[in-house]
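Hi there. Long-time user, first ticket. I'm pasting a complex I've been working with (about 614 residues overall). I'd like to know whether the download I got is complete or cut off, because the file seemed smaller than I expected. Thanks.
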Amino acid sequence: MNGTIQAPTIEYALLAPMLLVFGAAIIGVLVEAFAPRDLRKSIQMPLTLLALLGGFVLTVLNGINGLPDAPAAMGAVAVDGPALFIWGIILVLALVSTLLINDEDQFVAQAAAVPGSPDEEEAILSGYAQTEVYPLLLFSVGGMLLFASANDLLAMFVGLEVMSLPLYLLCGLARHRRLLSQEASVKYFLLGAFSSAFFLYGTALIYGYAGSVDLKAISAVLTEVSGQETLLLVGLALLGVGLLFKIGAAPFQAWKPDVYQGAPTAVTALMASTVLVAAFGAVLRVFWVALGGLEWDWKPVMWGIAILTMIVGAILAITQTEIKRMLAYSSIAHAGFLLTGVVAIGAAEQNRQALSAILFYLAAYGFTTVGAFAVVTMVRDAGGEAGHLSRWAGLGKRAPVLAGIFAFFLLAFAGIPLTSGFFGKYAVFSAAVAGDALPLVIVGVVSSAIAAFFYVRVIVLMFFNEPAVDGPSIATPTVGTSAVVALAAAATVVLGVFPQPVLDLADQAASALFIR
Amino acid sequence: MTTHYLVLSALLFAIGAIGVLVRRNAIVVFMCVELMLNACNLAFVTFARQQGNLDGQIIAFFVMVVAAAEVVIGLAIIVMIFRTRRSASVDDANLLKY
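Hi, the file is complete. Here it is re-exported in full:
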């Protein structure tokens, strides 16, 4: 307080993946402003791929160079083992989703043109394209990286918003069924903004209690008795609402099916895989690092939420007739399975096991999800994708390979042995058993069985029903889409048959837990 | 007495939250969200005073910037859906359900 301001120290090398992604996003915006329209896509696409690839390489280099023992950027960002693992997953999944987003005919020609108006027709005829999609994607991915590694609540809030705001826009850019897409965008935006206000008020109350938003400082204050527990507990609850909304846990799951259905499928693939990964990184940091000392206060509630999420996701998925909505409810159920791992906090050894299980689960689930949505983009009707499940009847006879791969993804979601889903579920549930959460595991297994019912129902529909006469056409996949499906299928097989290297990597990432 | 400011901020937050739940016009709903963010700002500044450090005041600036970015995105989305449907009521947007 003597009037001199000390310059902050920033560990640029540690933060390089994030800085690269944000830098490329800004260049992308400049490209939109200055490059001629017909050149934009051919600049944006390689730029995006290079940035994500470069980010991944830098993340791996960070991992090889050894982990720091203190947070970077004056305590704002913790680049620790779990953070690097999560960064790696997010960057690879975003890279894969970019290949899907690159496909023609998915995004509006001109978002400002009213659907069905002469303006829209003219924009389509002149071959316009909203190439802003690429920088928006990069901003969102950068936000995810920050969200998952933030070591104070302010950085986490900024990361949350930088992740979400571009996604709200991306949701509204579908070329076909634009009314649905715009509605999804409005719903996602209003509910998302509502939930981040809760997150922020929770942050304010916790700041009022602890006098700091730094996760380490908050956890240090918890041990001191101060007689203002109300402030802390209300803050904890509001913070939890904001975070659980992002992972789509019940009772905050209402947005997920609507948004997943309305958004362009390539964007859904990106959202469904990466947002969940980033949000679990943040949830673990808040509840384990900052509020781990309060575990007896939040654990019972988290139990209830995990049970509710698993059951709501599994049961409502049965009633769905739309393929993307069904996958959305399945994603809700998976968020519930992951929450059982979050509840398994306890002794350090137990935390390590639970953390590495969650990391492995996120990797396995992310790849399968991207693959499943990539298949959805290929089954088409006259007016876009054939969403209704009845249109998928007999797909196994018309396109056996595609239907076979999709069936395989569904089996992985169900957690059948020899798929990645099995080892993910096994690891999370055994961590939960070690964390004295046996009832949760029983509910988890039961809802897995319910979930298996509707996955198998789709498989039966595809293979044992007669195809409709005017059934959907199978789009000839572009190189990008085939690469995505092949990669996702390969990841699902490899993680299911030979999971040890990735399990080891997750163990190693979790070995030092979170740095504070 | 900083407590009064905290009570005011809690009131503003509650009014905003209730507004989001009961109002039907997307613009008004969005304004209620902004009211909630401003309630957060008031709480941050008050707590900064109570705690005797500047963190809360700095955070208030961050929140203002984030809220401004949110306005840009939110108005773009709401104007887009208004031009399509000639209505900004959140009840009219009912194609996605069940």
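A couple of notes from our side: The radius of gyration of chain B is 16 Å. The longest helix of chain B spans residues 55-85.
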